[in-house]
Amino acid sequence: MIRVQTEDFDICNEIAALTKDRSDVGAVVTFSGLVRDVTLTLEHYPGMTERELGKIEAEANARWSLQACLIVHRIGTLEPGDNIVLVVTASAHRRDAFEAAEFLMDYLKTRAPFWKREGEDWVEAKASDDEAAERWK
To answer: CB neighbours of 126 closer than 8 A, spacing ≥ 6?
Structure first.
């Protein structure tokens, strides 16, 4: 499941909805990203962004045995402390959930078509993010 939205999200509610009535889930791993120090503006290409996130999610499901997966990414102007991104992976066992969540975040940082501006400055891609994603090839 993938959502790109301006609205905030509640992590506990998202986990509860993802795992409701599931007896096959033994592990749930979450990653939530928050805005640091300055106002952040996130932009995307509607349609293209969701397709790319779908590809990333499909690849995670192909690599690991997941019972459920959720990616929520916010767009628009966000203030320090606001939620930016949520990744939730659910599997029968913890290793699959942990590795899939880490994979998804590495690829969200490098392949997902989002553009960030901190204040008036566009945020450049970081070599360390690309290096982290390389290990999954």
So the answer is: 109
CA distances from 134 to 67, 123, 127 (A): 25, 21, 11
d(CA 114, CA 2): 14
Q: What is the dotted CATH code of the domain comprising 2-123?
A: 3.90.1170.40
Domain boundaries, the chain: 2-123
What is the C-alpha separation between 106 and 134, in angstroms, rounded?
A: 9
Q: What is the pLDDT of residues 12-30, one digit of tens each?
A: 999 999 999 999 999 999 9
SS3 (DSSP) at 52: helix
Q: Cβ atoms within 10 A of the Cβ of 69, count? A: 23
Between CA 79 and CA 127 the distance in angstroms is 25
Distance in angstroms (rounded) separating the CA atoms of residues 106 and 99: 11
Count of C-beta atoms within a 10 Å radius of residue 111:
13
The H or E element spanning position 69 is: strand 66-74
Dist CA 77 CA 118 (whole Å): 10
* Predicted model pTM: 0.90
Determine the pLDDT at residue 9.
97
